[in-house]
Design goal:
382 residues; alpha/beta; Arginase, Chain A; 8-stranded parallel sheet; 10 strands; 34% helix; globular
Length: 382
């Protein structure tokens, strides 16, 4: 059965993450492919015992989109998740912040959510329970495990956000939705496809319309009727036209204020088609005139550092169309930028656009030799 789990996942071992790598360090493409070469956790007890901050999950929804291939995304992202940067004892620090994910965050690969390849409605209910299982693990410090879901098509947004609402309370989680499309269409009366979840989540009360923020809308849809509905329910949207007119920094600051006016918990849904096809051609529904990497890296990193992000999904990557692996590398990097932000927040660093003293230009920051050695010593202790 596609959703029937093994009952012996904990037999003969103490609870805790399992490192599958034979050697202490290495470079791509060596090692067993897990997300970012992280240890594996199989049951909630492993998350608890390992004091896990982030649990990454693969989900294979792929039958609600015309251009099939997103189902292959999770394992391809696992396989190529360390093209940039080594792992183990050779792991590199994030240049801007000097965050080293393997040291500053407890990250695990929690395997795959149960997905029925022929029926999206059967899948989303099981995925919802699976994600709630992860997010429901609460540590002694009061922090919950943060699930990051690698898709898969965008129908995942419904079970992913609904699962967080199950944990944190219905209507208590806001949505930050990066996408070229508003994804609230009940095409042909179908409510479970990759372009319908916005309306379904709001109508069922999992998220309030005024706590739903969209970034990157463009192209030829929504239509006039849909815009009116979005305004009626209070959705806050930021089109590419707004970004072109006012600048993305102004839009980012507006998004930050909108989050401050919302609930305590937030979920990031990142559709790769929000990116311009120049950067990300291998997506389900490419749309010209999208977001760029400098904009997205900074946005995602700041959101996760400054705001209480309790979950994220990366969807609509189609490796069957990724002839040069550029889109997959970018998808992985966006998630890593998000985890850098999560690590900064864990360390209590929530200032806007934080940059390590070590990496600032010499004109901006002149360190004495004693200051430099002190920073190095503190970094080594971490």
């Amino acid at each position: 059965m596609w959703k029937e789990r093994r009952t012996d996942l904990s037999e003969g071992r103490e609870p805790g993450p399992i490192n599958l790598q034979r050697y202490k360090g290495g470079f791509y493409p060596s090692g067993i492919p897990t997300f970012y070469r992280s240890p594996v956790a199989l049951v909630p007890e492993d998350l608890k015992a390992g004091k896990v901050d982030v649990a990454i999950v693969g989900a294979y929804t792929d039958n609600t989109i015309a251009m099939r291939g997103a189902a292959y995304g999770p394992n391809m992202l696992r396989a190529m998740s360390e093209i940039y940067g080594a792992w183990g004892i050779f792991e590199q620090a994030h240049v801007h912040t000097m965050i080293t994910l393997g040291k500053d965050l407890n990250i695990v690969d929690y395997g795959d959510a149960p997905t029925e390849p022929f029926n999206v409605e059967r899948s989303i209910h099981e995925i919802r329970k699976f994600i709630a299982e992860i997010a429901g693990v609460k540590h002694e410090n009061g922090k919950h495990v943060i699930p990051i879901i690698m898709g898969g098509d965008h129908s995942l947004a419904y079970p992913d956000l609904a699962a967080l609402a199950d944990v944190y309370g219905k209507g208590n989680v806001g949505m930050i939705h990066f996408d070229a499309h508003y994804d609230g269409s009940y095409a042909y009366g179908v409510t479970g496809h990759n372009g319908s979840f916005t309306k379904r989540l709001i109508q069922e009360g999992h998220v309030k319309g005024e706590n739903y923020i969209q970034i990157g809308l463009r192209g030829w849809y929504p239509d006039e009727v849909t815009w009116k509905w979005m305004r009626e329910v209070g959705i806050k949207y930021h089109t590419m036209g707004q970004i072109e007119k006012h600048g993305w920094e102004a839009v980012l600051e507006e998004v930050m204020k909108e989050i401050d006016d919302g609930p305590d918990y937030w979920f990031i849904s990142f559709d790769m088609d929000s990116m311009d096809p120049t950067y990300a051609p291998a997506v389900g529904s490419p749309e010209p005139n999208g977001l760029t990497t400098p904009v997205v890296f900074r946005m995602v990193r700041r959101l996760c550092a400054e705001k209480n992000v309790v979950g994220m999904e990366m969807v609509e990557y189609n490796p069957l169309r990724d002839s040069n692996w550029m889109t997959g590398q970018l998808a992985n990097r966006i998630v890593k930028e998000a985890m850098v932000g999560i690590a900064l927040r864990k360390k209590g660093i929530t200032e806007a656009d934080y940059e390590s003293d070590l990496t600032k230009t010499h004109g901006q920051n002149k360190l004495t030799e004693i200051q430099y050695l002190t920073i190095i010593e503190q970094s080594e202790k971490r």
